[in-house]
TrEMBL record:
The keyword Hydrolase applies. It comes from the Archaea. Pfam families: Peptidase_M42. One of its GO terms (biological process) is proteolysis. Belongs to the peptidase M42 family. The keyword Cytoplasm does not apply. Zn(2+) 1 binds at residues 66, 176, 229. GO terms for molecular function: aminopeptidase activity; metal ion binding. The lineage of its organism: Archaea, Methanobacteriati, Methanobacteriota, Stenosarchaea group, Halobacteria. It comes from Halovenus rubra. This is M42 family metallopeptidase.
Amino acid sequence: MAAPFDFDLLQELTETSGVPGYEDRIREVVRRELEPEVDELQTDGMGNVVGTLNGNSDYSVVVAAHMDEIGFMVRHVTDDGFVQLDALGGWDPRVLKAQRVTIHTDDEDITGLIGSVPPHTLDEAERESTPDVSDLHVDTGLDGQTANERISRGDLVTLNQTTERVGDNVTGKALDDRSCLFTIIEAARRIEDPDVTIHFAATVQEEVGIRGARALGVDLDPDLALALDVTVANDVPGFEAADHVTELGEGTAIKLKDSSVIANPKIHQRLQSVADEAEIDFQLEVLPAGGTDTAGFQRAGGAVPAGAISIPTRYLHTVTESAHVDDIAATIDLLTAFLESETGGHDYTL
């Protein structure tokens, strides 16, 4: 089955590097894709990108997805040529051993390997221990002098992974949150003459504390905010049904809550009504832990009605994040239908 959307663009977005605070490469892709679809395109002092589609009223809606992916910064290069890392974002070190990485220097990209010694050389305590990111080392295959000449403290490191189709799923790195960047770009392509002004925002530094969204909430001062992010899909062996949160292939997810936000009830109710009317499959998201840009916009410059749409995703914060193609398509459809039907006349006060 062919993907029901521009898979090549999704692949480019997910494979492009961009860690918190250094979103340069992905920012250029976003600017390239948004510019022909909007009336104005701006980048601010933090690196947030905002593409504005002017509506027929002063009422404004911001729709946001974050550009940054979790990654690392080089903190030390040893005399033997091994690279030690500092985390940018929330990593589970258990999934990092034996992974291939790319070290992004000023002059070049260097491939490295996160080392993992053979298990039969470890004692029982070492086999059962959980490493910290600070315990990991990157093997560049270079001697110490060469490594120190080519790699510097502060260079950036991302996981090296391609994006592929696996059955009905898309899998790779950085679906969090490039699949949602893709969603807002696709919505911007479809919407031509909105009743309200729409700010399509690609935010920075979400993975280290929703910093870009907080700044934009003040600068844009929207009347309504809608964030897009991935959410947990624990619909795999080893989890009870109540712990799935969402399930792949069951539709886009309308957020009710996470640990950072309780979505405005009138917004999630209207999202459900729009989905029902357009016959878009959806599920309700009750996420026990984790936060998104939704919280940043909800209270950045005062009380703003805020909601969120999520793409169900397995294996979050790994290089094999996986989402169902139909859920991605449903997310695009719901976002587009919601924005096209937003008149500025809906009362979201409680």
